[in-house]
Write a structure and sequence with these properties.
Helix content is about 25%, strand content about 20%. It has helices at about 70, 75-80, 100-110, 110-115, 125-130, 150-155, 165-180, 200-205, 245-255, and strands at about 5-10, 20-25, 30-35, 45-50, 55, 60, 85-90, 140-145, 180-185, 190-195. The longest helix is centred in the last third of the chain and has 14 residues, at about 165-180.
Length: about 260
């Protein structure tokens, strides 16, 4: 007997295949797709999904909810849109590690226009303490990355200058201490964490050019190139951008005949 049966919906399974009509059955922590007649299948709860699309939960890989979610753990604005996993700490706006609580409060205030400044359920300093605030409390899975802001504030402070060699080494040590990447997933009430160390840490740091006091920040285009490259040079993963009226006028003026 199934715990839950969703039937009659259009199933889009996330593999890239075309959608198909069928049913999804849940038993414990196992979900399976059921094709064909399901009238003989018993379930404790049955949901008629006719006229709806049944999909796996969506993953939001760019979320600024690292504070708001703690204040509003039901996180309904995302859950009601089908989001079940969020990646937080993006854009360098990570809220751990912060050894100084005063620096933390100052950083929260600085980013309050983007991430909000809600009442928080507690205090933390380390990455582990911060991630424990989500365990068994929030409605979605959480994946966390350590951004550059807490690392720089902890070593260089609020000064507008490149880091010294010693400060750069301290940043790397803080990154290793927190784990890179660090994932903490809350699933079915239990916290799961996987920390990747060693190779990935060195690889990511080698591409973080602004962390190095000796390497210039790479330029995306040759010097003097102010415009974006043509569509044909931007690779297959970029959607075509419609030409502006001014661009169309210039192109038509340069066409022969």
């Amino acid at each position: 007997m199934l715990d839950l049966l969703l039937k009659g919906g259009l199933i889009v399974d996330g593999t890239g295949n075309e959608g198909f009509y069928g049913a999804a059955g849940v038993q414990g922590e196992t979900l399976r797709i059921i094709r064909g007649d399901v009238s003989s299948i018993e379930a404790a709860r049955v949901i008629d999904a006719s006229g709806h699309v049944v999909t796996p939960g969506f993953i939001d890989v760019h979320a600024h909810s690292g504070l708001v979610m703690l204040a509003e753990p039901r996180h309904e604005p995302k859950v009601r849109q089908g989001v079940t996993t969020e990646l937080i700490g993006v854009d360098g706006n990570s809220y751990a590690p912060f050894k100084s609580h005063d620096d933390f409060l100052r950083f929260v205030e600085l980013n309050s226009g983007l991430d909000g400044n809600p009442p928080l359920p507690g205090r933390w300093s380390s990455v582990a303490e911060y991630l424990s605030m989500f365990d068994r409390r929030v409605a979605v899975n959480v994946a966390y990355i350590i951004g550059n802001s807490p690392l720089r504030i902890a070593t260089v402070g609020w000064n507008n200058r490149p880091p010294t060699v010693r400060e750069l080494a301290d940043m790397k040590a803080l990154l290793r201490e927190g784990g890179l990447p660090t994932w903490r997933l809350r699933r079915h009430g239990r916290a799961r964490r996987a920390v990747s160390r060693g190779g990935p840490t060195r690889r990511h740091l080698s591409h973080s050019r602004p962390l190095s006091p000796r390497r210039p920040v790479p330029r995306p285009f040759p010097r003097g190139h102010r415009d974006r490259p043509p569509e044909r040079d931007r690779g297959p993963h970029h959607a075509p951008v419609p030409a502006s009226p001014e661009q169309r006028r210039r192109e038509s003026a340069t066409r022969p005949g």
